[in-house]
Give the backbone structure.
Amino acid sequence: MLTRLEVDGFKNLLDLEIELGAFTCIAGPNGTGKSNVFDAIQFLSLLSDMPMMDAAQQVRGVHGERVGDPRDLFWNGYEAAERRIRFAAEMIVPLAVEDDFGRVAKPTISFLRYELEIGYQPPAGIERIGRLRLLKEALRHINIGDAPSRLRFPHSASRFRSHVLQGRRSGIAFISTSEEHGEPVISIHQDGGSRGKPRPSAASRAPGTVVSTVTGSDDPTILAARREMQSWRRLALEPSALRTSDRFVDPRFMEADGRHLPGALYRIASSEPNGDPSRVYSRVANRLAELTGVSVHGIEVVADDVRELLTVYLKERSGLRLPARSLSEGTLRFLALCVLLEDPGAEGLFCMEEPENGIHPANLPSMVRLVQELAVDTSDAPGEDNPFRQVIINTHSPFVVQLVSPEYLLFASVGTRRAPDGTLSRGLVLRPLSNTWRATQDAGSYTKADILPYLVAPPGAQLRLEMDAA
């Protein structure tokens, strides 16, 4: 669970600090940079899994497309000034993870702070595109005793916090950065603390982060941090993927675009404890029946043994049986989220762009209720009936804002921010509503009167926020 994110120098995210709970809704006009928050989270996740340049090519460029120029990631990417991005992520990591060899590893402590700085090295010689440089990497523990002041979102201390925060650590970091001859040197420190020698490596030519190289149980806390960051996903449900049947040999877990939905639903239904898959199908069908304009009597996954395909079928009240490919885009996206809700193995952080897209206004309450229920209930301990999931959505819909509880809302605007080089520039500003848990005296907040023009804006209009001076 990502509890705090700090970003400086990434696109238009300048000196940005966000506290996160189980569910967060970032609302505001298009063009403010809301999606850049998702890009930053996605980039951190990719960096835990692959080389830096490969990760950079999978993040949206300045014009929305994926390109290979790493300068697109920097706020001043095409200027001559020094380019530097700083990330910090505070997270609750799993209490047990599996390494790449199938061995179970348990972290020394489950509350961690990860810091990363990346620079840019211009091309030299025959190179036409520069490369990313690892400047700093650190992984430290956060004392469990500091949790009440660090985790300010509403939660149960006895049932939630005491369950997810365990272990202890004193003194030394798990990853640290020092300097030798003007170059950064990154060291891994054993979970045993001072009882083992650190393993240093020069960072100047490193293709990826240290976290991305840890694959075994010898460094269980670093591995747990890696597994946590790998679970941060950006859902981009595509109708073409959602309409595709699955072969018998395909994976049985739904991908970020919705591919393998039939296989995932088939696995979940087949795993029902009493061996009756109809209970899962009934719960999904009852959810779909909430949608206006959708006549649902039942839903199931049909296994075609001749073609070796799994296909989702919906049965209407009239008796008509339709394959998933016949459903509307909005209904398919809603169905995918229903399947995700039923899957106890689907844990981690899910970022969703404008979940209201393709949904009839009359069905927005059902959609908003569904995405909120996807997130873990922090009044109870995570478990099979309460999967440890975190959800962040962004929206420009005033209807969605009215349906979301004020404590979950962050409002986006563009304001003056201090850039890494000390100059003032235009960047994303996120403010909570006053009298909610994120509001502090040090940071600005909105009142309900401030956002009234946003709430009453007609559908499709260009939305603007009343913004305090930065």
About this structure: The two ends are 30 Å apart (CA to CA). The chain is about 25% helix and 25% strand.
